[in-house]
Each structure stands twice: as C-alpha cells, then as structure tokens.
Amino acid sequence: MDTSKTTLNSQQKSVLILDLAKYFGGGQVRVIQLAKMLQGINYPFCVVVLDNCPMHLKLLEYGLPVKSVSHSRGDPRLILALKKITQEGGYQIIDTHNPQAHLWGLLTAIVSKGIRVVTTVHGCYGDAEKGWRSVLYNWVVKLNRFYSDKQFIAVSDSVQKYLTALHVAPESISYIPNAILPDDTSSEVTIQKLTGWSNEMIVVAIAARLEPVKGINHLIAAVAKAVKVNPLIKLFIMGEGREKNALLAQVDELGLADSVHFAGFRQDVSLLLKSVDVFCLSSLSEGLPFALLEAATAKLPLVLSKVGGMAEFFEHDYSALMFPVGDEEMLSEHILLLASNIAMREKLGNAAYQTVEKNFSVRRLLEETIAVYNG
Q: How far apart are the C-alpha atoms of 134 and 128, rounded to whole Å?
C-alpha cells in the first residue's frame, strides 16, 4: 500500500475537494484517505467542509489542509464563499463528494473562470433516498452532466451503472474503487470496556450513518429474532444520523435495551473492530462502503445485503454471507449461524481479507484520481 513511488508531473492542477456532509460516513473516509495521500506527495489541494462538522474536526486532527464554511447547505451565499476560497487559493478543479457538494461546487464553477468540476459519486442516490430527495439528488447529477467540462468518478460498478442510467456519457466516467490505508494508531479501547459486556458475548457490529438507506431497522429486527434463540448476541452500532431517535424507539419497543448499544460517531472504528465477532451491513442501496473494507481488512466474517458493490465484490458462502435486501429472517439466520460456528467465522474472515487485498489498491486510487484531475 506504499504510495511513495507516485510522482507528480508538470501538468498537475490544484484541487479543491468539496464535501458538505453533516455526518461522517464512507464518502468522508475516502476524502480523508485521498487527502492523506495527496499530502504525502505534496500535491496542491485543500478540503472544504461545513464548519465544526465531524469531518472538519477529523481533518484538523490529522493536520490536513482544510477550510470551513459557516453557511447552511441551503444558503445561496455558499456560492460566494466557495468562489472566494477558490480564487484566493488559485484552485483549478473542484472535486465534489456528496449531493449538496455536487450542486454548490457546480454553481461555483459556473460563476468562476477556468474551474473544472470532478463529480465523485459514492452511491446510487435514486435508490438511497425516497420522495423529493431522490428526485432532487438525481437532478443534481443530471445537472452536472450538462456542464461542458464534466468528469465523473464512480466508486463501484453499481454507481457506474447508475450514472449511465442517468445518461452520463460512459467516456466521462472513471471507475476508481475505494481503498484502505493501514491504521497507524494504537489503543486499548475495546467494545467490552465501552459497554460492560463480558467476553462471552457475541458482538455483531455495524458502522454506518443512521439513515434510512442503511436499513439498520432491519438489522435490529433480525437481532431481536436471533437474541430469542441465543441471548449472548449483542449489537454494537457506530454512527450518527437522522434515524437515531426512530432506531432508539425500535430498540425500546423490542425490549433490546440490554442487547443493543449505540456508540455514536466514532473516530476509532478500525480499533473497535478488533473486538467484534461479526460485521454486518444491511443497506438498501450501496456503493462500496469503507466500513466494509475496514471490516474485511480486520478479517471479520461479513453478513451483507446483496446490493451494489457489496454484491459485486463479495461472494456468498465464500467471502461473506449474503441476504436479499430487507430479508430479516435470513439475516437473523446468518447471525445465528456465525454466532455458533467459530470455524466458519475464521474461514469467511480470511476470504474477505484476501478479496480486499486483491481488489483495492491505494496506489490505484491515488494515481487514477490524479489522472482525472490532470486530464
């Protein structure tokens, strides 16, 4: 995973990486990974985020170049703030990483001179959202494809197909999957210390934004079924989002207060995964989650909904146990099977690790992203 051999050329173009997400998720992990690698080769860049959001604090912690905007995501003054940052920094490219960033980054480029837009898409927005959000987010992507200097990055094959379905020209799409940088931190934090659970407990974990598209309500329902058969099963949920209150109410209604722990936003997911037995993602739609790559790197057995990049790269009964989207019965059965079968957990975990080692290169992510910037 060494990127030291990646070199710059005389055509390098300075880039403003724009991410206006309120919460921390896989897209934000990719931005941080990319920023670390760009900093490592002295590539000229800066990340722009919302003031005091989790992403802002994380970038400051790592000492990465960052600027923040104080306007809300619905405030048109964002265009003026972004234009000022772009002009003062002399940035030639805006690389946008979530729907709001896609919109405001594009509008900033339109009112500025000599700015090229790169649209990095992390998921299938039409499937990930419902109602007006689905329509709006798809419209934003379509708006980007009409811009004369358009260029898209898809993080998975499913995202690439999604963009093609929105009539983005295939030659405008670069397929650059996510990758994982090695964790260089050390800590004695464990889930058992955080929760008070004994080492006998079987810890099922998920790391995801608490949003409808992540299907965490299905995972909680499945765990409720599994706990009735095996009371040692516990669910550890890492993440924040707008569904938190609804999920807390579901846990209370199902009588799972002693079996489910909400850990909130965690900056040490890779460390906590060391005390997990089974990692699960129950998403309704997905690109290629960083949490999945982290769990596979930790050699954890995976239980995954058969969707997006998860179905693309992981094979049922070899590198993961897969289940149809929303199938709580099968999800529960998979959890019970792994809870009682250590040998299967080890087999699946090793196969998942090999899958990540084979398919996800940080050097590829860096070099192909720079090629898009300089193209």
A: 7
